[in-house]
Amino acid sequence: MKRVLGCIRRADERFGMIRDGDRICVGVSGGKDSMLLLYGLKLYQNFAKHSFEVRGIMLDLGLVEQDVRPVEEFAERIGVPFEIIKTDIGDVVFNVRKESHPCALCAKLRRGALNSAAVERGCNLVALGHNREDVLETFFMSMLYESRLNTFGPVTYLGRKDVTIIRPLVFLPEKYALGVARKLEVPIMKPHCPVAGHTTREEMKEVLRYFTTIMPDAPNRIMNAISGTEKYNLWHNLRLPPRDMPLSSARSDDSLPST
Questions:
Q1: Which of 76, 67, 72 minimizes the C-alpha distance to 192?
Q2: Would you give the DSSP letter of residue 193?
Q3: pTM for this structure?
């Protein structure tokens, strides 16, 4: 758990996530990451520079009946207020809209429901359990399917809701999260979405696995490239010669590799 707390502290201090008096609502899916985040933030209260409150909210999408008692008991054991909110998101996505690619709409509805619930309960921060691999998979999805360099931010302010989304686990490797959750016997619920395991994100996991066969520490290197903004050297930073300067006298960009 020490490394989990270290990653939370690193993200908090680098991006200024948490301040005195903040009230944090953790979006709990029942997966390893959100459960670790709930536990990690509770422990982080003991040595963080700022005083803050933590509570957990789970959205019941209405897809299948699940036994959530282990999650409720875990939250009670670690001393975190926890609540389950019933929604009709599953019915809307799969029965009403009958989405062939349901992930985008489902995520949008879940975000809206969670953010609204957090604000109604006086929380100004919503914490999500996205780990390092989630950052990288989103980056590749945006690049390959949308032709843009993009991924979600560690901190995002939503003006309409007046709530800020934070992702304290962005530096935590997924494999480590799974190992810690198992070692601590954190209750983990199985995915209950009909398309779980058959999404574009799963394809991006394969892309990352391929990169690691070439270079074992590829995920860490890519993450450093994303977070190291001072190293960016894309085309919006091109140094073009003045229009009245002959092209033959313009210096070439020595930073580009030779071909």
A1: 67
A2: -
A3: 0.85
